[in-house]
Amino acid sequence: MTRTLDDIDLTDRVLHSTEDLSEFWRDLRHTKPVHWHQPADGGTGFWVLTAYEHISAVYRDTKHFTSERGNVMDALRAGGDSAAKRMLSLTDGRRHTDVRSILMKTFSKRGVEQVGERIRGITRGLVEQALERGTCDFAMDVAAPIPLMAICDLLGVPEEDRWRIFDLTSSMVASETPEHTQKDAWRNKNEVLFYFANMAEGRRVEPRDDIVSLLTGAQISGSGLTEDEIIFNCYSLILGGGETTRMSIGGAVVALVQHPDQWRALKNGDVSVDSAVEEVLRWTTPSMHMARTAVADVEIGGSSIRAGDIVTLWNVSANRDEKAFELPDAFNLARSPNKHVTLGGGSHFCLGAHLARLEINSVLTSLRDLVSEIEPVGEPRRIYSNFLGGVCHVPVALR
Ligand code: HEM
Description:
single chain, CATH 1.10.630.10, three-stranded antiparallel β-sheet, oxidoreductase
């Protein structure tokens, strides 16, 4: 059934998990690419942008839009994000540039390569274990541990705490069941913040070679970062570093199973792994939307957006925009050019882009080198969220 503008509520977390909205997005792109959306709860309405052209322009437009009140729909509709101006993604201007350059030491291409060997080794080991068992839940057994281990290594989170952190973060922006409450998310978020507050305290006394120590020791114009900045940025890294990449890796396997010709192209070396990584990112689009607040009146696509309005940018639609991609609904690992917006754009472009690409690359390389056949042995299960999109269970047999 094609959904129409009148019967859809984009804030509904179940909707994104249970329905294929591709026709809805296509209709919007063609008929109302800048659309004012009034959710069913009667609360704050917001603009919905679906065209690639408009979305990439807003990512770059720091004159008319800010991230400092929040960058996702739910937080903005609730009156603003509690981490505003204390977390990289929710800080603009000079402070943003300064904090980002501190973290760039770790997340630059060269910085990330330092953990490359370890990530490739972990990935190979996990795929080998899955092969030995014959069947596995690729999402839980392979996709989840890779980004978790990588970001925990970088942050300095000890091995014994990692799966507890995974349980807490994986239920913050999404859940495996429709009955997830906001209260659970807040409780889990507080526990993670508290965890990093303790860790930062320890690193002040005894610094090590990790990001928590980097942040506690960093100086901007002679002053250290605030306690809140340190804790919220650790929280953001563990969340941004873990959940999104997990969705892309799980989604990659689902896509390869559904497109055997593309699996063969990867296996035979007809496409480069680098190019395959970009198509996996475009195809899976784990951050379904990002959001901004207008700080000045501005016109987009003939619609007048007023200062104070919430503007949501639907990456899932932009990445299938026929004006930006040839045959956008084809999963084509050789796609070139492939300028997807999966990792955002402009000054807030994903800090973890090199790390995410390295992780997905290590999975595709291990699959290509070690696996001859991937066969589904059950239905993949999607998570429930209006922000994060993807699969949490992918039962497959590997041979
Ligand atoms: C920013 C997506 C992996 C950390 C972003 C943004 C997007 C995004 C769309 C832009 C946010 C905005 O404009 O408001 C993704 C996806 C990933 C991924 C889809 C995986 C497939 C990672 C990893 C890390 C990370 C591995 C860290 C280890 C961050 C941070 C920002 C960010 C800190 C904020 C950057 C800034 O404001 O300057 N990410 N991300 N992400 N991402 Fe990622």
